[in-house]
Amino acid sequence: QVQLVESGGGLVQAGGSLRLTCAASGSIFRINNMGWYRQAPGKQRELVATIARGGSPNYVDSVKGRFTISGDDAKSTVYLQMNNLKPEDTALYYCKLDITNGRLTRNDYWGQGTQVTVSS
């Protein structure tokens, strides 16, 4: 059983920063790919940032230069550093990890979501 727990969301003024954390626990053999998604009210969920194991990060154009995705393999944790936040970044943010578990079965796991609200 693998579980993801997200934290770090909150209310911030435009121009501020937040760091989201997604910690995985359970029977984890390897984290393969990591990603952050967001969903604003009335909109579809969109991919914000991804990074593959040993690869380079990729970002949606709207967050390039402001957001940074990173991972700590030893802690089974992925981060999303968000700087210079804008009101349009307001959304529920989800992490998704592609994990090979202890039985060597590979699946996608989602966090529960953490709310980010940016005031103007």
Jot down its keywords.
mainly beta, 4-stranded antiparallel beta sheet, 11 strands, 0% helix, elongated
Task: Please describe the topology of this protein.
Layout: E1 2-7, E2 10-13, E3 18-26, E4 28-39, E5 46-52, E6 58-59, E7 67-72, E8 77-82, E9 91-101, E10 106-110, E11 114-119
Which structural class best describes the helix and strand composition?
mainly beta
Report the total helices: 0
Mean pLDDT: 96
The end-to-end span amounts to 41 Å
CA-based shape: elongated
Count all strands and give the number.
Answer: 11
Low-confidence stretches: none
SSE string, helices as H and strands as E: EEEEEEEEEEE
Sheet with the most strands?
7 strands, mixed
Q: How much of the residues is beta strand, in percent?
A: over 45%
Radius of gyration: 14 Å
Helix content: under 10%
Question: What would your notes on this structure say?
Answer:
It is a single chain. The protein has 120 residues and is mostly beta strands. 0% of the residues lie in helices and 62% in strands. It has strands spanning 2-7, 10-13, 18-26, 28-39, 46-52, 58-59, 67-72, 77-82, 91-101, 106-110, 114-119. Strands 2, 4, 5, 6, 9, 10 and 11 form a seven-stranded mixed β-sheet that branches. A four-stranded antiparallel β-sheet has the order 1-3-8-7, with no helix packed on it. β7 and β8 (77-82) form a beta hairpin. The mean pLDDT is 96.
